[in-house]
Amino acid sequence: MLIQGRCHCGNLSFRFERTGDSPEIAARVCTCTFCTKHGGVWTSDPKGSLEVCVQEPERVSRYKFGTGTAEFHVCSNCGVVPIATSEIEGRLYAVVSVNAFEGVDASRVRKLPADFESEHTEGRLARRTRSWIPNVRFATA
């Protein structure tokens, strides 16, 4: 199933290809302070793929905090964070914000709280390699 999404102004857009046939989309409501402050609700598919298109790369900020192992891609035009990435052993993994979806009925999204604060860096990276999107490609318009 193909899901498209974007930041508010369209500078950062994505095409997320989900595998499987479940109409329900599991999403994690992250309870870290950054996600709490901007409403981060993330989903992924460990067998899926993601293509990210950036219209104006100079208008994308990258924010890291805590362990510094994830990069939040923030559109400097509109302030929306549609994706987060993590480079692990030379491979880029990603999650996408369900709040950035276009044309997806919100009733299909099942939001569950997720608390990763007690994870050590090794465990965090291992979880991401198991559950984040492993096939990520960036393109410039």
Outline? globular
What is the CATH top level name? Mainly Beta
**Strand content bin:** 35-45%
Q: Tell me the number of helical segments per DSSP (H or I, 4 or more residues long).
A: 2
**How many beta-strand elements?**
12
Oligomeric organization of the protein chains = single chain
CATH architectural name: Beta Complex
Structural class: mainly beta
Mean pLDDT: 94
Number of domains: 1
Query: How would you characterize the largest beta sheet?
Result: 7 strands, mixed
Enter the CATH topology name.
Answer: Metal Binding Protein, Guanine Nucleotide Exchange Factor, Chain A
Question: Unreliable segments (pLDDT under 50, ≥5 consecutive)?
Answer: none
The arrangement of helices and strands along the chain is EEEHEEEEEEEEHE
Rounded radius of gyration (Å): 14 Å
What strand line-up does the widest sheet have? 6-7-8-9-4-3-11
Distance between the termini: 23 Å
